[in-house]
Specification:
The protein is an alpha+beta fold and 806 residues long. Helix 10 (389-407) packs parallel to helix 18 (761-779), helix 14 (529-541) packs parallel to helix 15 and helix 17 packs across helix 18. The N and C termini lie far apart (83 Å).
Length: 806
């Protein structure tokens, strides 16, 4: 061998393919302030829009007077529901099958609801204009408490639904009822509880919170009257879906709508749906003939765009005296706010909450979910989780700890006793899912050994003795969490949005010189797709990742895809990328066989090209094949080297993880200290370990925020009392704990590269770990369950109620 010939290791390293800690290529522009965000866009003659918003949570709109607003210099128009009715746009469909006011039509249903849209030459003039619009309101009774929404004397919130006894998801049993959804075998589950030796029942509430991305929701709409075309730049996690929604609402032919999602400063589910700002900006552009920009501020984002959670879960577990679970029963009261605007697949009004059996081998289970309307902002998006999976994981993980406490068992040992065993996969759960793969015992035992779990329990026992003797005022909690997430929505057999199957797509086009471009139906909001997608292609076709450009977010160039949320990018778009690359490789093999004058079957793949079996010196690199594809293909073959793949997954993927939080709490102040947090994740094949670690750090930070104080809270009149970062907990580097990360690898058997997805797993597993730590700390004082969030004041109040100050 020539000394200059690169080794196999050098050739593999040059590709920077899967498994490589490749640096994020996006960061070159981001760290230099060269990102391209919606608010950076400035078009000639561009106007600005801003909303008049309701100060009331529930009120009749008696009149809207815009005379003084139109006198403000720079104000050009004031759009109301009456304006929108002239073009049949006063209401818009939601992704959940409901309808939602674009602007207040006769009444308002939540504080900061959009009432009128002021269009002006600049944002300052628009702001001046909204302060001059005079709206006369007549206050109406408010429903904030979801447990009172279906009282006999509860006020009617949705007057547009008067007389309708059925909704998009079946019968409605009250005027403030959205749907009832059930799954599982009720009779068999009831029988298990009758026979149960041990039972627990607890109301476990997951409070309302908000994704609060760094960049708020915003758009620029520009209508070309000559061509009849509408261009929309926006913070869209699913640009193709937005294009379809706009076509359905505005009755503009879809091929004349161009949607572009540039760089996005975080999404976390907040930017999946359609908001009134998008519709109003589009209408304003059509009316004025000029581009119109809408950018919400932070208070608007927190109070009026899609919330997350607000699930109140009555949780029951049946078990033997030895701790073997025999049944699970959960009833959920789901607060949907004023409109059902959840971004869930159409067939799943409660998302994938039926993953609530978690990682455990429940023989039977039954779930019932009642969705209800209240005077709160609509939404219910998957805040860094798959659809309602975080709620399900929190429900079962708190439930298992409560059961362990009742049995007098260690929470980790109870879990080990009830895990689904490796030989049971593919595992069919009692609530209808087919888990693809898992090795839960190995992951749990690795976590326990890594943190010296037995030693921590001994330390906790010693500290509890010291507390009883009055030697310390700190209590110690160990929060164990073991989650299984369901991601990768999804198979067309059971997943669609507005009737569109939840596939995803990729188009790869290789150029003659061996470089290429991949256009993908996903849309990054910080996940690093430009880096990792190129790594998949590099491994599949042997072209260095640096020679692959990845493009997303432009509906004119990217193939139709369902976007990025719910950890679906790698399970679905990643699979489409691998399949498109394999189509490229298949054609490349035919070209190589022709050039090397052998049969295709005589070739074998070797890192970055093909070689003849038995003749390793006879090779053709992928780069050379790209050149040949444009000048000397086999007779009858079309020139060029490109492929498109639309991937409809056969099943979901099921990442899992074992987490533990070690926490101390000062009972006199409620102040907590996270001493240690260890997170082991299994996401199947690991594409870029560095990006995975970054995703885990980010998800854990959000889990910490949610569990320890991040809440959208209302007073009795429907006023949002946590509507800014002064009150809504947003942890900084000062508060955020240190994270320890680890992993096991259990590939998905049905995914082309074995990957499962990881971006939302740390939020799913992190929240119950924090909450279990707090509850474990207080458990020896007689507490069974303390509701989230666990801020200092609530911790102090819990200590007070448990009598530690007596």
């Amino acid at each position: 061998m020539n000394d200059m010939t690169p080794t196999r290791e050098q050739r593999e390293a040059r590709l920077e393919g899967m498994g490589c800690k490749r640096k994020r290529v996006e960061d070159i522009r981001f760290t230099q302030g060269k990102g391209n965000y919606v608010d950076d866009l400035k078009l000639p003659g561009m106007l600005h829009g801003d909303f008049v918003r309701s100060p009331h949570a529930h009120a009749r709109v008696k009149s809207i007077n815009s005379e003084e607003a139109l006198k403000v210099p720079g104000v050009l128009a004031v759009i109301t529901a009456e304006t929108l009715k002239t073009v049949n746009l006063a209401w818009m469909p939601t992704l959940a099958g409901d309808v939602q006011m674009v602007l207040a039509d006769g009444k308002v249903l939540f504080q900061n609801q959009e009432v009128a849209f002021v269009v002006a030459t600049d944002r300052y003039a628009a702001d001046d204009g909204i302060n001059k619009v005079v709206v006369e309101y007549e206050s109406l009774p408010v429903v904030i408490d979801p447990f009172k929404a279906m009282d006999a004397d509860a006020p009617v919130l949705r007057e547009d639904l008067a007389g309708k006894t059925t909704g998009a998801h079946g019968p409605r049993k009250h005027h403030n009822h959205v749907f009832e959804w059930t799954i599982g075998d009720k009779d068999l589950t009831d029988a298990a509880f009758i026979k149960a030796e041990v039972k627990i029942k607890e109301m476990i509430s997951y409070h309302r919170t908000h994704p609060s991305p760094l960049e708020t929701c915003q758009c620029v709409c520009s209508f070309d009257k000559i061509r009849g075309e509408l261009s929309i730049w926006g913070t869209f996690q699913a640009p193709h879906v937005i294009r379809t929604v706009v076509a359905l609402i505005a009755k503009i032919p879809e091929h004349k709508i161009h949607v572009i999602s540039p760089d996005i400063g975080g999404g976390f589910g907040n930017k999946v749906g359609a908001y009134p700002g998008y519709i109003c900006a589009a209408v304003a552009s059509i009316v004025t003939g000029k581009p119109v920009k809408w950018v919400e501020d932070r208070i608007e984002n927190l109070t009026a765009t899609s919330f997350a959670r607000d699930y109140h879960m009555t949780t029951e577990i049946a078990a033997t005296k030895e701790g073997k679970v025999t049944g699970l029963r959960v009833h959920v009261l789901a607060d949907h706010g004023a409109f059902d605007a959840c971004a869930d697949p159409s067939k799943w009004p409660a998302g994938f909450f039926n993953i609530v059996t978690g990682s455990y081998d429940f023989p039977t289970a039954h779930v019932a979910v009642d969705g209800i309307y209240t005077n709160k902002a609509p939404g219910g998006v998957a805040y860094r989780c798959s659809f309602r999976v975080t709620e399900a994981a929190y429900c079962i993980e708190r439930g298992m700890d409560i059961l362990a406490q009742k049995l007098g068992m260690d929470p980790a040992e109870l879990r080990l006793k009830n895990f689904i065993k490796p030989e049971q996969f593919p595992y069919h759960s009692a609530l209808g899912w087919e888990y693809d793969s898992g090795d839960y015992h190995t992951a749990m035992k690795k976590m326990m050994e890594s943190v010296d779990y037995a030693g921590l329990r001994r330390e906790q026992a010693a500290q509890r003795d010291a507390f009883k003797r009055g030697e310390t005022r700190e209590i110690m909690g160990l929060g164990v969490s073991f989650f299984t997430e369901i991601v990768g929505a999804g198979p067309s057999k059971n997943c669609d949005i507005l009737g569109i199957a939840m596939f995803d797509s990729c188009e790869i086009r290789m150029h003659p010189t061996g470089a290429g471009i991949a256009r993908v139906g996903s849309k990054s909001q910080g996940q690093g797709h430009e880096t990792t997608w190129a790594q998949i292609i590099a491994t599949e076709i042997g072209i260095p990742a640096d020679d692959i450009m990845v493009e997303e977010g432009n509906t004119d160039t990217a193939p139709y895809g369902l976007g990025t949320y719910g950890s679906r990018s790698t399970p679905v778009a990643g699979a489409a990328i691998a399949m498109a690359a394999r189509k490229i490789k298949a054609k490349a093999q035919m070209i190589a066989a022709y050039k090397l004058e052998v049969h295709e079957g005589d070739l074998e793949w070797d890192i970055d090209g093909f070689r003849v079996k038995g003749l390793p010196e006879k090779t053709m690199s992928m780069k050379d094949i790209c050149w040949a594809a444009y000048n000397s293909v086999p007779p009858g073959m079309e020139p060029g080297l490109e492929a498109v793949s639309y991937y409809d997954p056969p099943n979901m993927t099921y990442p899992f993880g074992a987490y533990i939080c070690v926490m101390n709490i000062d009972v006199d102040t409620g102040v907590y200290k996270v001493r240690r947090f260890y997170a082991l994740d299994d996401c199947g094949t690991r594409i870029n370990p560095m990006i995975i670690e970054g995703q885990v750090h980010g998800g854990l930070t959000e889990a910490f925020a949610i569990a320890m104080g991040q809440e959208i809270r209302y007073d009795d009149e429907g006023n949002v009392v946590t509507g800014s970062f002064m009150d809504f907990f947003m942890p900084t580097a000062v508060e955020t704990p240190h994270w320890e990360t680890d992993f096991t690898v259990t590939p998905s058997p049905h995914h082309p590269i074995g990957a499962k997805g990881v971006g939302e797993s740390p939020n799913v597993g992190g929240v119950p770990a924090f909450s279990n730590a707090v509850n474990d700390a207080f458990s020896f004082l007689g507490s069974t369950h303390i509701q989230m969030p666990h801020d200092f004041w609530r911790n102090w109040r819990a200590a007070k109620e448990l009598g530690v100050f007596a």
